[in-house]
Fold each of these.
Amino acid sequence: MALEEWQKEIIKKSDGKCTVSKLAGDVGAEYRAVRKYMEENNIPFKARPRPQRRYTDQHVLKVRKHLSAGGLTHSEIAKKLGVSRQFVSAVSSGFRKEQGRSERVGIYKDVEKKAAEAFVKVFGGEVCSLSQR
């Protein structure tokens, strides 16, 4: 199978330091086609950096306020506040709290307590709780 011109250009230009979008722009091909071609032929490329979102206590409090008011879906709250829907869900279910802590609440604390009691029954001694670490 003969290579197309853009494929030949990619082979020439790829040095593992260029992003796929840069190469796609240089050769005039679609991003998806270039990425697929490079992955299938094990041609190295630099991955696009994905920004990490940092949510503060203010974000948590604003989400809680909107959740308690009711009337909006998680997606609508996320869009309104500029956070991810997953973050809203985490706050709603108790997985995400203020002060940057990410701890589970509810049944998980009960399970941890029961597991610690069972451990003490079998092995004796004391058990340090995960939340005390």
Amino acid sequence: MCYPYSAGSRFRVQAGVRPISGEAWCGRFEADVKDATAVFAATFREPDDMAAALRCVAVDYLSTRRSPGVVPYEASLAVVQFGRITIQHADDDAHIASGEVARDSAVLLLPIDGTVAGLAVNAYRAGPTDAVLFSPGAELRTVCPGRQAWAAVSISGYDAVTEWADLPAEGCFAALPGFLGRDPSFVSQLIELGWLARHDRARLAEGSVPEALAEQWASALARALGAALPASRASSGPGRMLHRRVRLVAAAEEKLAGEIGRPIYSDGFAASLGVSVRTLHDAFQAVFGMGVQSYLQNRRLHLVRAALRRGAGRSDLVKEVALRFGFWHLGRFAQAYQVAFGELPSATLAAAISRRGAVARASAAD
């Protein structure tokens, strides 16, 4: 089936490398891509940092973990890039993600070690042996209700990719039911690469290993996709409903971005999109596992956190930012923020001030 569309805190880098910011790390990785093999592995405490580190997609991450006394978000990511192929292996936390695939890449997304209940990719309820294939520019919206290990294989150069298999048209995605059951070794090799990226990255750059990996994975992808895609097109009925729901959510997100600090009333908002409240609710529930108002509050809380992490050390900044994003009842806002992130907004601001002070002192010492 092909479904078309219109249109942080610090983290620890594995192997003893000192922690650096998400922005600095991404820049370093991009510089290393010139090498035959580029490898990194990191642990993230903020969903924004995880989203920034992902390759071949541009997404926003919103944490949805709500467990008192537990770290609100923690995920790890290992990336191996060789030639046109990039392999990502992640142990991710509860979240929703929204964005799109890069315009020059196709991405194969698949679960590792089963699936958490309620996992959905573009409203498609993925099973433990299913995969989803995205063509360049395709919309990407996922809901992950709990911890989930996943892998992604990305191929840059769409013209070259279409030589391997009859892939979906640009801007589309295809569900691949039973993909992992056809070749169990495909997943075992992904897991092995993830382990090497975290624990023995030097091996991946030795001798002719990069060239061998590129050839091996080109062959594996051609074989796997060539077998899976014909079966995925056997039925197109469910695709129409998924298509409509994802397009509706994409339109709603675009509209919400321009009204993020204003009151949003479900009936008026649904009418502005030309649908009923029930239709809009069902679309958000299918795509993100939550209704419009829950999604909106979650996004606003993350925007507040991002602003506080960047903010200056003014005592009234928390109130200013909360009001900017529509939280008029400051007591309830502080409570919701603490439930979402495990700390009060004032603690986030204090940590940001402390980090900036440390950076300033280090610069002065130099």
Amino acid sequence: MGELIELSSGSGELSVGIDRASGSLVRLSSAALEWEALAPAGAPGPSTCCCRWASTASTGRAGPVNPAPRWSSTRPGPLMRFLRPDALLMTAVTGFDDRNMINQCLLYRYIISYEPYNFKGRLTDMPLTVAYGRQMDAMRTELRDWLWDGEFQDTIGARVTDRSSGEMHAPFSVFKSPRDGSLAVVVANYSTEDRVVDVLVNERAGGRYRLVERDEWLDAANGVRLPARSAAVVFGPPDGRLHPAAETGSGTTAHHSP
């Protein structure tokens, strides 16, 4: 953890600060020690800004954090994100294996507020949720040019259909890079069954995708395979712009560094 700047003091021993190096809000109390016991060195810390256990991993922004709607409907609606496109919106994640709420945070760029036992528990009470949330935040940090800093497009620029039924799939969202206008599509599978979907980006098929729980990029030409309660980020076929899923001659991937 880098140099800390104290922002405000809460009740008792709680205090909130910002890590100058990463720009992440951190909790300056025994809570931070508990997070460090769970996470490897260098992992983003929790915050007590408007909540008890909020992961503000690499948002890169300072400012007030606002509550976002909490539900895992497949059609939650993008109104809040459209109204406040750059706001730090936070949503409570209360389940002990609450993967779909983590997926919703990815879909709509919400900060995760870990709240086991409805604001009465501790991070160690929900290890499955925290583990999946950390994987999602790590991917979102790696792809921050789209998923943190990009312009939210709702579903504009992409089309996602279920391969078995041919019907439109929901939910999914689109983010546009401020660097070059390239699009990243986030597709979630809220169901308890595996799904295969076809994704068109700017009406073009193909491209590559990556699941939250896997580091490698996969070919999307034969469909995006979504395990139950999972999510993926999809990039369209190469169009001259470098993005993280661009293939190199060795078959590996070239990563776009912010």
Amino acid sequence: MSKKSRRSPKSVDTTATRAKAVAPRKRQRQRTKKQIALSLLERPKGASITEMQGALGWQAHSVRGFLAGTVRKMPGVTLVSDKIENGPRRYPPLGYDCEDRKLVVNQAEAETVRQIFRRYAAFGSVLALKEALDDQNIVGKVRVSQAGRRSGGKPMARGALHRMLQNRIYRGEIVHKDKSYPGQHAAIVGQDLWDQVQALLAENRVERRTGGGAKNPSLLVRLLHDDKGAPMTPRHAVKNGKRYRYYVTRALTTRRREAVPDGRRIPAGDIEQIVVSRIRAFLSSAAEIHAAVEPDAKSAIEQKSLIARAAALSDQWERQSPAQTRGLLCTFVTRIDLRPDKVDIHLLPKRLGRILTGDASVLSQVSTVAEDAPTLTLSAPAHLRRAGMEMTMLIDGNHARKGKPNPSLIKLIIKAQKLKETLIQGGQPLADVAKSAGMSSSYFTRLVKLSFLAPDITKAILEGHQPTDLTAGRLINHTRLPLDWKEQRAVFGFS
């Protein structure tokens, strides 16, 4: 066999083998999932999410991601979803049915919708609205899928009711990219009822944001910062049924005192009184108001009018509710800084000017520096002092709380006078009287000594005019109380 004849079979075998190897590859070449998906979408009836899931083996979120991320970005391709013309997808909201791809009013459901709007206008609360609807067994829309499955018909959640009350479809409009346009469907809710409901919703949003709905709102929440610039948050403690409010450095609410040695804890009433007193003094000062409003109020007549309105606002401040005060502070005060020797109040003169001109719309806005710069800083002198054994930070200064008696101090003075009378009238040894009162002799002696305080010191304590750092702990723990009244005044800071 020649070489040629010997090589010929090998050459033929090689070719056949290659042909066999190539053939399966051609048979295995199949359409990609993208091609399958596009072919389904190109059908006259289109394709549902469920159909695409079955054909592609994808989960529903993957199908939606493919439609939004791939198909919509393909040039020359328009993706049309099964929706009502210029309206919502597939299922209409309560009050409407879908006929010929358009919204048609369902009269029975429409009356339910109007009833929901009217009740919210009466209650002013989504929670109260939900409770009333649940009591009457008013439920959401019943929906039937293409496969005949029923869904819905359940009590409406608060979130669903809140969205429903803001749905402009009920005004016969369509919303696209935060803009509303006239729709082709009829409105269900009248303009007056709609405006009333929207005003209530806006008012409630401001109240939640400012904390005005609280029984005892903390006036300076989200405004007050300590001397390190850290935000301070309201806290309270209850002792013997009495509620004591404080502002504490926020880090102290989650970490131990050792981890935040510079954290502050101050009585809420003291710092709030300082801030309010300084703002009222500012409003009453014609010179300060003139300097604040002059850039925006050019004419002398307008400036004089604003100065008069500011003084009137200061006079009527005490007649405001805490919620109104909180809302007012949130409108034109941007920040309050607690310094070692003063309190800085940063406010927005432009916002204040709008309030004084009677612009009610500004009261629904929370102050931000970026929108209404520049700011004006008011300072009130104050000093942080540690109050004896109570380890509480007190405020001292010209704007500190005045004329408010300290119940603990008054209780000590009254108890001291009673024990002194018992000791004099009973004629018993001191140790026996102390034992019958349930006290140690040492504590009894220190307490009785307080009955010999100077009359002017006792009067100041009863009227609440004592120094702010004079606490019950400091008074009772002063073991060597001088009998000389002049020395007593010097020791306790009355001189």
